[in-house]
């Protein structure tokens, strides 16, 4: 089955195998409303343009900053089971996982949006008195009681990267010049400058998020699809098929 290629798709010097279409979605950050709209858009696109194999890939940073981190993971857990979606690990999920194992990890996570995530799970922290929050151990106990077992399992299912054809999907990026199999997890989740400023021709064409941009940033060696959904109201999804890339 060969699907029709839309007129507004863009050729990229990379390709994926025949009969496969990949839908890659950027950083969601607690915007369950936008995630729902994107999944509906994916379903509509598949009805208009059926294809043998459709793969949904979510690039990480599902939680923090936006209002409904819990709702995002609720939806993605369903997509993972029903659609076999591939959910990558973002640096914010790594912070959450660290806190689940060590209450002291709140010291780092609290600087990057933990409070909005606590609120979405019903763990109340007064934003006006965050300097006087409960002790980390007490906060940890309260959060563990509120955090569903299904969400723990979801975190365990996250992948660090995914390759298909000439494409590599990863949260933040890669260290230029280092083989993919030798990349450090810290770079996959956190890298910015060295990767973003590089014109190096990587082993694969990299699809990533992590660093917000006003619109999808398409370069010769990578595309950034983190459009700052939590504050911009724009969650980006790209459909990749053959040698074409379409922003849905």
Characterize the structure shown:
The chain has 248 residues and is α/β, with parallel strands linked by helices. The chain has one domain (10-247): Metallo-dependent phosphatases (Purple Acid Phosphatase, chain A, domain 2). The chain has helices at 32-48, 69-82, 91-101, 106-109, 114-120, 136-146, 149-156, 185-190, 193-196, 229-232; strands at 10-11, 20-25, 53-58, 86-87, 161-164, 167-170, 205-208, 217-218, 222-224, 237-241, 244-247. It has a six-stranded mixed β-sheet, with helices on one face. Strands 5-6-7-9-8 form a five-stranded mixed β-sheet, with no helix packed on it. The longest helix has 17 residues, at 32-48. It starts with 9 loop residues before the first strand and ends with a strand. 38% of the residues are buried.
Which SSEs are present, and which pair or pack?
Layout: E1 10-11, E2 20-25, H1 32-48, E3 53-58, H2 69-82, E4 86-87, H3 91-101, H4 106-109, H5 114-120, H6 136-146, H7 149-156, E5 161-164, E6 167-170, H8 185-190, H9 193-196, E7 205-208, E8 217-218, E9 222-224, H10 229-232, E10 237-241, E11 244-247
Parallel strand pairs: 2-3, 3-4, 6-7, 7-9
Antiparallel strand pairs: 1-11, 2-10, 5-6, 8-9, 10-11
Helix pairs in contact: 1-2
